[in-house]
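Re: export button greyed out
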Amino acid sequence: MTIKIAVIQFPGSNCDLDTLYVLNNVISNGIEAELIWHNHFKEAQFDGVVLPGGFSFGDYLRSGIIAAHSPALDEARIMLKGGKPIIGICNGFQILAEAQFLPGALLRNDSLKFICKWVNIKVENNKTAFTSKMNIGDVLAIPIAHGEGRYYTDKLKELEENNQIVFRYSTENGELTEQANPNGSLESIAGVCNLEQNCLGLMPHPERASEPILSPKQTMHGRLFFESMVEFIKRRVS
Amino acid sequence: MPKVISNGDELDVDLTQPEIKQIKDLLERDPTITEWGMFDVMHSEHCSYKSSRPKLKLFEDAEKNYDYVLAGPGQDAGVIDIGDGFALAFRIESHNHPSAIEPYHGAATGIGGIIRDILCMGVRPIALLDPLRFGPLKGNPHSQWLFKYVVKGIADYGNCTGIPTIGGEVEFDKSFESNCLVNVACIGLGTIEDFEHAPSKAYNPGDYVILMGGSTGRDGIHGVTFASRTLTEMSEADRPAVQIGDPFTKKLIIEATIEAVKTGYVRGLKDLGGGGLSCALSELTGDGGTGGDIDMSKIFTREPGMNSFEIMLSESQERMAFIVKPEGLETVLEVFRKFEMAHAVIGRTDDSKVLKVKDGNSLVVNLPATALSDAPTIPREEKRPEYLDKLIAQQTPEPKKDLEEIMYDLIASENICSKEWVYRQYDHEVGVRSVVKCGDGDSGVLRIIGTNKFLAASVGINSKHCYLNPYEGTKGGLVEICGNVIANGAKPMAMVNCCNFGNPEIPESFWYFSHAVKGMADFCTQLRIPIIGGNVSFYNEDEVNKTAIKPTPVIMIVGIIEGKENVITLPFKKTEHDILLLGETKAELGGSEYHSVIYDLEGGTPPHVDEKKIKANWNFLFELYNNNLVKANHDVNKGGLIITIAEMCFKNNLGVDLDFNECYDDNLRDDEFLFSESVGRFIIETQPKDYNKIMEIAKNLKVNVKKIGFLIANPEIHIKGLKGKDVKLDVNKMKKLYEVTIPNLMEI
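Workaround output, generated via the alternate export path:
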């Protein structure tokens, strides 16, 4: 079967081409990914959607706030209700949080600076549409690149009870330390999902961690996200 | 400053009296006030290169002499053919004056400008590199302020446009205290076809002229003439001449331009930078041998009531001029509509060879298209500064400190310490091309998707060496920057430069420029490296303190690595591997970090370049690469041998056991040997089993390579075989000192 994935292009998206490249050329596996200009997006034509990283509308006001009001998000809302998978990476996560697909908010990094570096994240939930190929406790090597990635929520307890915390920043050995938390996120949270677990948002960039040649330790942990998505879609359809 | 008058309007111009007369003679009338403004801008040093052009003739003709050079100096960017149907474009430019006054927007719009230069070659910008220079940070809030906001300006702009910043360089020196240097470089990648679709000229009469992108406002008016003067106490009042950037719009311009070029209907392309519309329109028509008929009322402005003078001279950012085939007009406009980019058809080209701009019924500009770009050159006097002999004669004092202490001081010094504080703020991964991570190599390395090739790029210069001897210092800079890409496994393909100097009207300042240019010309001709572009920034001189910056002819080299197995990185890999030193070490401590950090001395004998030996060393390295014999490589740079070795130990927390017995030289003191900055040297990690083979290659190529030690698991550097006592250094302590210097100064 062909799996149709939309990579939504907001005017200031800048990881759109990278994500497209990884889906079509690195993962492939039946995927047919397409770049879709944000107000041309029609959910019925796709099995899944990626909101890529970037600066959607310049993000001078607050990251993701304007994109959250794009018609693309209305379509995505229908998609979500229908149980299709949606992943927001970096700016995509900020948009999903602003659009209240996901709980919480992304605040300015505690250093008040943009940070680009490879970090480690620990898998806390492998039941989501994007983590089924991972094991709980796995540590993934993956890069971040953001100025506003400090996760905050006033519903921490609820998130914990509902198993919505999917990733936490950790050391290479999976310890949660202050030093391993690059931006001051609450409880080291790097990614969260919705109650139904078909929508994931995370600050790190799986598309930059999908090929050994790009990874400091020749890993390709980023692939697991997209491979899990393929598995999820195949299971859903059959 | 002379004053010109036209129709009752007055204008102060930077033109000389002979230039004013020449313009009137050419036109056989008094120019309009708008035309005066245009001449003033286009004849400024920044646009016309009137002082530098006679010297730049020393460079060999890159397009003629190198078959893979597609575009050489004089174009918006140099372009080379790298095979497999791909073209690489690159250029480096200065944005010094605006950044010294308004660091954030000055630096940001510098990035904006260089991106447009690459874009208008028809290719996608894929990498940025930024060599920066400031006064020392310690105890200097002004330098800290400039440094902080220049880096933030670059980060905010570059990150938003989705172009990774993959390299750069930072130098701190008193001479840059009031004149910081912000140089920006960009690399673009496209197909040969993309490049062929976008010449920077309008050669066909009847084509449409389209202005696309940001609106034209009152910002940046006369930015160029401002960059062609020295900074004074009054310069704060020039702040309105600094443009404001909008990286979000820039991102859209990039996408819209690339898509428009791909339609095949674009026949010419030019960005609007210094000199605004005046510059773009006159160069497009002048270089294309056509004329143009422009309707000013079609130009969309940011505010009502702007007059023709303001519109023609505005340097508002984020604008591109397209020359479009008549049959493709609708297709191209459709692309701009899709990206919701403001645009307007502002006129058409014709065969009149005259550039005409109409404001309603009045003709505000009516000039021969080439009149503006044919600025006269001005011969400048040059004179070797008298203070140089005394400076060069300075002797290295007898060290009062232990060698250990000196090395700890050096590794923590501002010029040597880690620049992680800077590159963490830059997105260096976007684009999924970055193969060698920041800090892991001497250059930035990107894969070229669709080929088995990689590009390596590096920028820099040692201004302290150039200050003592601009000719040798510039050649040394070339050795060093080529060395950076070679250390990563690349063959240097082409060079562009950014010459930052003082006031060319001062003979001593011009002497520095002249000798730096000669150094570039001589070295590049001998080593067969085409010079495919350059930028000259004069007037980096502080009028209040009467000081010029140290001469800073920044070099940028782009090289190509063939095959993934040939990508070499800097960190030491494995214990028991051999450490080799390639190249000769001489008593060359002039302008060294050792002199400046330990003795606060600027003088001494700077490194000398022997092109034949450099060439042999490079060939030797390529021979080793061909045989897959190199595990790590780092060129020896600021601080000398031990600093280089320490930097290689950090990543994998290894140590080394060094014995310099084989390098023993009666004529060298220990400190001269250890801290010399002799150029063209490399520290190489190899496997013990390959030793004999490597020495055989060395013998054949007649290069000076010696085994100086081996890697150990214990993170310590042991040094034996010196004239004085043995030395032992703690790698972890060095690493800590290396890492904390800048955060400690900046995070307060």
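The longest strand of chain A covers residues 115-123. The button fix ships in the next patch.
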